[in-house]
Design a protein that fits this description.
- Helix content is 31%, strand content 25%.
- It is an alpha/beta fold.
- It folds into three domains: 225 residues, FAD/NAD(P)-binding domain (3-Layer(bba) Sandwich), CATH 3.50.50; 108 residues, 3-Layer(bba) Sandwich (FAD/NAD(P)-binding domain); 105 residues, Enolase-like, domain 1.
Length: 474
């Protein structure tokens, strides 16, 4: 007889493990199935985010920032060093240690909350049954009152640039280079391409980023994207827009690329190639034909506003459904579904999910861009403020960037906030809270912000919406 559970979660990434832990907290007998294996071959919970995404990339970003500052930015503080060197093996080892700490932490949380983990691939069958295939090929079947699909996403592979794990890599491969490549090519100027391109540029690689779109960071506000592009250019990141790659051939230890710049074909030779053109829902092999769950034309699981599929008792959350492929969006969907199953209120507002690019400077935004407001015919006011006029930013020697606030022209309600600068990944939270509480620019303008802090840029941007910023000419 199949083992019975109140909730079975397929996927132990951000959306899945949050769903499993919250379901268990609410008194439900819960199982979580995940196939991700660490370098030791053992189950490593946490999905892409903890293993080869959010956490390890931030570890390398921090290591590379320290090295770059030692070489280029400490002298202004009166600190000098000579013959600085980076041991890539030690840096990657530190990253691996952090990953193991956090994946092990999820396993401990499962144990503490009495979540039963299964190591293997989960497949939804009819009648809310789940088949688990272990790494050795053995199978068993579980049965649940509710099933939560949280299978995540995988990198998109280009047909002419197949991943080989060494010369042509995805995000996972770019986290594990054994040495700094002399020439690194990156296809895609999105979050992954910019972050990992920045890591290896700081460590000494010549980095060329090829972006097919004619605009840089088209998802971000145009003013913020313009400032960011200028800073990246100063850093030596060679970002080529409107560059459509058609060929990537490995010849010995090199990759020979052909791309069109909108006029003619161009060639580029690199030692390593990172393909970062986006991700797709990981739904292959997840659903039995008769399970009743439907996929959309992009391979994502079809759900309603509350993450319900067409099958009673089957839910889906995270990267495998509509909405932004962001870990924190998955966190909240997983928790919301667990609470809905328990008969509690549960909802995620996709309009106030913050976006962050952890480059130097950081880029963050929430809500509508100015272009979106124009296209939708929504009347708005704009306030902006540069970090160059913020005492704390200048004292930190990080004056680049700005905060831009968009508010409704009639109600003053905050519609979008866009930032580029030091630590804006933290500052964006104030904007999210304001928007969740339907706050106005006036509300932010009248809140006392500590001095000297970077948050004063948010305060002054709110003041600037009504042309009353103190530290800049309005």
């Amino acid at each position: 007889m199949s083992e019975q559970f109140d909730v079975i979660v397929i996927g132990g990434g951000p959306a899945g493990y949050h769903a499993a832990i919250r379901a268990a907290q609410l008194g439900m007998k819960t199982a979580c199935i995940d196939a991700f294996a660490g370098k030791d071959g053992k189950q490593a919970l946490g999905g892409t985010c903890l293993n080869v995404g959010c956490i390890p990339s931030k570890a390398l970003l921090d290591s590379s920032k320290q090295f770059h500052n030692l070489q280029h930015n400490f002298e202004i503080h009166g600190i000098t060093a000579s013959n600085a060197a980076i041991d890539v093996g030690t840096m990657v080892g530190r990253k691996d240690k952090i990953v193991k700490q956090f994946t092990g932490g999820v396993a401990m949380l499962f144990k503490a909350n009495k979540v039963t983990p299964y190591f293997g691939k989960g497949r939804l069958l009819a009648g809310r049954k789940v088949e688990v295939t272990a790494p050795d090929g053995g199978t068993q079947t579980l049965e649940g009152k509710h099933v939560i699909l949280a299978s995540g996403s995988v990198p998109i592979e280009l047909p002419f640039a197949k991943f080989d794990g060494k010369t042509i890599v995805d995000n996972a491969g770019a986290l594990d280079f054994e040495a700094v490549p002399k020439r690194l090519g990156v296809i895609g100027a999105g979050v992954i391409g910019l972050e990992l391109g920045s890591v290896w540029k700081r460590l000494g690689a010549e980095v060329t980023v090829l972006e097919a779109l004619p605009e840089f960071l088209a998802a971000a506000d145009a003013d913020v994207a313009k400032v960011a592009a200028k800073e990246f250019k100063k850093q030596g990141l060679d970002i080529k827009l409107g560059a459509k790659v058609s060929r990537a051939e490995v010849q010995g230890d090199e990759v020979h690329l052909t791309y069109n710049d909108g006029k003619t074909d161009q060639s580029l030779v690199v030692d390593r190639l990172l393909v970062a053109v986006g991700r797709r829902a990981a739904t292959e092999g997840l659903l039995a034909e008769d399970c009743g769950v439907k996929l959309d034309d992009r391979g994502r699981i079809e759900v309603d506003a509350h993450c319900k599929t067409a099958v009673e008792g089957v839910w889906a959350v995270g990267d495998c459904v509509r909405g932004p492929m962001l870990a924190h969006k998955g966190f909240e969907e997983g928790i919301a579904v667990a609470e809905l199953i328990a008969g509690l209120p549960g909802h995620v507002n996709l309009d106030t999910v913050p976006w962050v690019v952890y480059t130097e400077p950081e880029i963050a935004w929430v809500g509508k861009t100015e272009k979106q407001l124009k296209d939708e015919g929504i009347p708005y006011k704009v306030g902006s403020f540069p970090f160059a006029a913020v005492g704390r930013a200048v004292a930190m020697n990080e004056p680049a960037g700005m905060v831009k606030m968009l508010a409704h022209a009639e109600t003053d309600r905050v519609l979008g906030v866009h930032m580029v600068g030091a630590n804006v990944s933290e500052l964006i939270a104030e904007a999210v809270v304001t928007m969740e509480f339907k706050g106005a620019a006036e509300d932010l303008a009248r809140i006392v912000h500590a001095h000297p802090t970077l948050s004063e840029a948010v305060h002054e941007a709110a003041l600037a919406v009504d042309k009353r910023a103190i530290h800049k000419a309005n």
